[in-house]
Write a structure and sequence with these properties.
175 residues, alpha+beta, elongated
Length: 175
């Protein structure tokens, strides 16, 4: 992009779209770095050879992405499972999707979803043999990697094995 007086408003030499798929923010960042380096090399060669063309950006398609804040990671369990799973993937490595579990901070670092209807209060964590499910406004989040405050990240089976009770309500307070 060529710089102008605005913030990221100048004309562009080239753009490229990548499918996010199931990548988390860390993996997507790595893919974007590789792709961006390839595109940059190509554009720099075209600029040097005098055959690079600029295209104006579509101001109607522009969006503003504010800087992330710590509180952006707080999970609202009334949201649907897909939205929460997107939070989990998108907020790595910081601020991480997190909730309160018995007065301790619980980060969910990797999860998948189970789309189903249920009558369970959103934010209810249920231990089911070797896994954990957490009810959402619509569906369940199935954590795969979790980290309780003061502990190392661990897989859901290890986390479930350490739980003394089978049902816990999450959420409520944050520092």
């Amino acid at each position: 992009m060529r710089l102008d007086e605005g913030l990221d408003t100048g004309p562009v030499y080239e753009k490229q779209e990548l499918e996010i798929g199931s990548d988390d923010a860390i993996m997507l960042s790595k893919r974007l770095a590789i792709s961006g380096a390839e595109v940059l090399t190509s554009v720099l060669d075209r600029i040097e050879n005098g055959n690079a063309e600029l295209q104006p950006q579509d101001e109607n398609a522009a969006t503003y992405a504010p800087l992330l804040k710590k509180e952006d990671g707080i999970i609202n369990w009334n949201r649907n499972a897909q939205e929460i799973e997107n939070m989990v993937r998108g907020l790595l490595p910081w601020p991480c999707a997190r909730t309160d579990m018995q007065d301790k901070l619980l980060k969910i670092l990797k999860a998948r979803i189970e789309e189903t209807t249920h009558g369970i209060k959103p934010g209810t964590m249920i231990k089911e043999s070797n896994r954990i499910i957490i009810s959402c406004g619509n569906g369940f989040i199935i954590p795969e990697i979790l980290q309780l405050e003061g502990k190392q990240a661990m897989d859901a089976k290890s986390f479930a094995n350490g739980l003394k009770i089978n049902e816990i309500f999450l959420g409520g307070f944050f520092r």
